Amino acid sequence: MTQAERQPLLGLSSTPVFPDEVPDPEAAARPATNNPKTLTWTSAYILVISRVIGSGIFATPGSIVKSAGSVGLSLLIWGVGTVLAACGLAVSLEYGCMLPRSGGDKVYLEYTYPRPRFLASTLIAVQAVLLGFTASNCIVFAKYTFFAFNVEPTELQHKVLALGLITAVTIMHGFFLRTGIWVQNVLGWLKIFLVGAISLTGIWVILVRPPSETDASFGAEPGSVFSSWDSLWEDSNWSWNLLSTSLFKIIYSYAGLSNLNNVMNEVRDPVRTLKTVCPAALLTAGALYFLANISYFLVVPIEEIKNSGELVAALLFERLFGNQIGRTLLPLAIAISAAGNVMVVTFALARVNQEIARQGFLPWSKVLSSSRPFGAPLGGLIVHYIPSVLVIALPPQGDVYNFILDVEGYPGQFFSLAVTLGLLLLRYKEPDLPRPFKAWLPAVWLRVLISLVLLASPFFPPEGGKGDVGFFYATYAIVGTGVIVFGVLYWYVWTVLLPRWGGYHLEEEKAVTEDGATHTKLVRVHEF
């Protein structure tokens, strides 16, 4: 295989590319770009921490406790999930420092697996289009907003509010780029404050505030589950199927740790920033998540947590501060922080979609890859907007939140496994490749092992055949695997079968848009 064939479709070199340091002989011939490096260290930290601290810590503990059955097992699952997140972060840091450009896993898979040609790119493109949505946080935003105003919404009202949020965020990031970054920074700090408040309130209740009539009216003694070691583990459910879906939810809660990898072209001093921002975000989120869970268990009876759905944080505040502040102001603040998460996810995934369009895997690639006229990836935003709207509007309410998290998590393990094995492959095939950061080898192998275990988990039915949703327990695995299979079939038909029948092969034809962005148009070259 020639060196040219070895390169990924995005044109990466075999050494780290620092856009500010590498000479570009064609720069003078190109128009000025509208994509300046706008992300400072603080903005990058907020971009990561706002993505990490989304709806997860506010909405998933109830479902996790319901699956685990006990406080002790729930906390153990959160601890294991945090370790797995650290292992995944180590892999992302090595790749991101080695190949520092926007695109994240798309860039890494293309570089590592250039053969079969176009396969990695096609799978990433299919996942981005079919599963690249932010519906879960839009749903949490709607639920907490209606809870704050003491409204029992109809299914239509719930969907309309969630759709209104994703629409407003898309417009802001598409037409008012700097304003959108400023707003998501503000909401990011609000989110950190909220989780910190949750983390400290439970401890305050136990250590400072004496029991009151409010506690008695709720019918439970705060912190009773911590009275003995046996009560901590009482009713534990060790079904691997249920534990695996809980791990998917915790992994989802840490998914934003690699958010900065998606927008490296817009980060100032990208390698140094990546190496410091992401570990700082992991430490922040891990500490806050642990304290927040302790607070839930200290204040809210475990049976109420199990039946809380996505509203466990609202129950915490209502018990502590009553109906006025606890039921209205603080849940409304949680709704706003969920909106902030939608903003940062949309910001990052739109740029992944833009990279896919530049490569030519989407129709109208020249239009969708451009940052005109507002210096923002409007085309990538539209590609992100469409599946988000469909996922919010089409499924019925009920178990949709848990199902969304599971169906996002399962195919994600295929890509996690491929990326992690690819890192080991590159260390063997290209040991001299500069690596400003190198992941600890046991952490890399642990991530491989856990990915394999999570992929196998649907083959271990839960007791009674009932998972964390009301329908078939392995539906998420069927849908997730179906997305991967569809991607492989699409790749085979598009790049192998049709060219064979038509007597042509696909080649990349590179061009530059008016705003200086490079895009690749896939063209048919007929064989005579």
TrEMBL record:
Q: Name one GO molecular function term.
A: L-amino acid transmembrane transporter activity
Q: Which PANTHER family match?
A: AMINO ACID TRANSPORTER, TRANSPORTER, PUTATIVE (EUROFUNG)-RELATED
Classify the main location.
membrane
Keyword Transmembrane helix in the entry? The reply is yes
Entry's InterPro entries?
AA/rel_permease1, AminoAcid_Transporter
Annotated stretches, region: Disordered: 12-34
What are the record keywords, sorted?
Membrane, Transmembrane, Transmembrane helix
What name has this protein been given in UniProt? Answer: Methionine permease
Q: What membrane topology does the UniProt entry give? A: Multi-pass membrane protein
For this protein, the parts annotated as crossing the membrane are 44-64, 76-97, 118-144, 156-177, 189-207, 238-257, 277-299, 329-353, 374-394, 410-428, 440-460, 472-493
This entry carries the following GO cellular component terms, namely: membrane
Its annotated compartments are:
Membrane
